[in-house]
Design goal:
Helix content: 40-55%
Order of helices and strands: HEHEHEHEEEHEHHEHEHHEEEHHEHH
Strand content: 15-25%
Number of helices: 14
Low-confidence stretches: 1-20
Mean pLDDT: 91
Distance between the termini: 59 Å
Radius of gyration: 22 Å
Number of strands: 13
């Protein structure tokens, strides 16, 4: 009897494991809201249609009003694959069962992009220093809190390094996506705003006259280009097909030239293999920002501050050079 019970339990367990790995009939591909969803849908559509054909699984584009919506979608298995920035990918990896499997290669062949600070072409502010010195007169546009180039990078390089609290420094501050921030600067709805270089390049291609109204006054160091992330529990055979598709797209086969043209609309030239280690530079930025804020805090006990700083230093050392 015991043998039968054990055999039955094993059979049930094996069915459960197999079921967890069963290939789905359709998947949702999450697309972060760097700009208007209709533009992103149009640009991504041919890539996702080709992915559907290559895998034999229906692929739906999944949009949300902010980055958190895509992260939460992956957390609750409403999104199985997604295009993220590094900051949002970090959130997906840490709390939404995400895993990086590929990285975007930019249109110029580089493996990175930049965060820009822009003002209107007629603005009296010529430099970052001008913007910071006149911050009380400036309506400022910042990015989504889960955006690498719209929030994390400027938070560290513009604000933390200059010991400035953006919440109190400016006349007003508002958060939006990259496209909206560019348009707001071009139309004089804000005095200055941060946005990603790749979104700016897409707008340059679509609306060159509007883009000419924006003057860049600061750019960040190179940011690692965007990762593609899937849920760790996605069917393994499907993962193999998905990885093979992205690594070959625009590179090989009879349709390579047309695929390359599709990628150019996204400011990409292809994809390469990647892992969660891609996030290390972004993790360092988060820790540096935390450490800088902690060092400037005069309200915390000195011994407790030293303890917390030591803990951050250990985390930074663990991430390597």
């Amino acid at each position: 009897m015991l043998t039968k019970l054990l055999a039955g339990a094993c059979a049930a367990l094996c069915v459960g494991v197999a079921g967890a790995q069963e290939a789905p009939k359709e998947i949702n591909f999450g697309i972060i809201s760097t700009e208007a969803s209709q533009n992103l849908k149009s640009d991504w559509a041919p890539v996702l249609e080709a992915l559907q054909k290559a895998t034999g699984v229906k692929v739906n584009a999944f949009f949300a009003s902010d980055y958190a919506g895509i992260i939460e979608g992956m957390r609750f298995n409403k999104v199985q694959i997604a295009w993220y920035g590094n900051k949002s990918a970090m959130e997906a990896v840490d709390r939404a069962s995400g895993e990086i499997f590929a990285q975007v290669i930019m249109a110029d062949g580089s493996l990175g992009y930049r965060s820009y600070l822009g003002v209107h072409k007629d603005s009296p502010y010529k430099t970052l220093d001008d913007v910071l010195k006149n911050s009380k007169n400036i309506n400022f546009g910042i990015g989504d809190p889960n955006s690498t180039s719209g929030f994390l990078v400027p938070s560290y390089y513009i604000f933390a390094q200059n010991k400035i609290d953006p919440k109190t420094a400016f006349k007003t501050i508002r958060g939006s996506n990259h496209e909206a921030n560019i348009l707001a600067v071009a139309n004089k709805q804000v005095d200055a705003a941060v946005f990603a270089s790749d979104t700016y390049e897409r707008i340059e291609a679509r609306q060159p006259e509007l883009a000419k109204n924006v003057r860049k006054v600061w750019e960040s160091p190179l940011i690692p280009s965007d990762p593609l992330v899937w849920r760790t529990d996605l069917n393994s055979d499907l993962k193999t097909k998905i990885r093979a598709f992205f690594l070959a797209y625009g590179q090989t086969g009879a349709n390579a030239a047309a695929e390359k043209a599709n990628l150019i609309k996204l400011q990409f030239s292809g994809f390469r293999p990647s892992t969660n280690a891609q996030l290390n530079p972004v993790r360092k930025l988060e820790l540096f920002k935390k450490k800088t804020k902690l060092e400037a805090d005069t309200t915390i006990d000195a011994a407790e501050k030293a303890k917390q700083i030591e803990a951050i230093d250990k985390q930074l050392a663990a991430l390597g050079n």
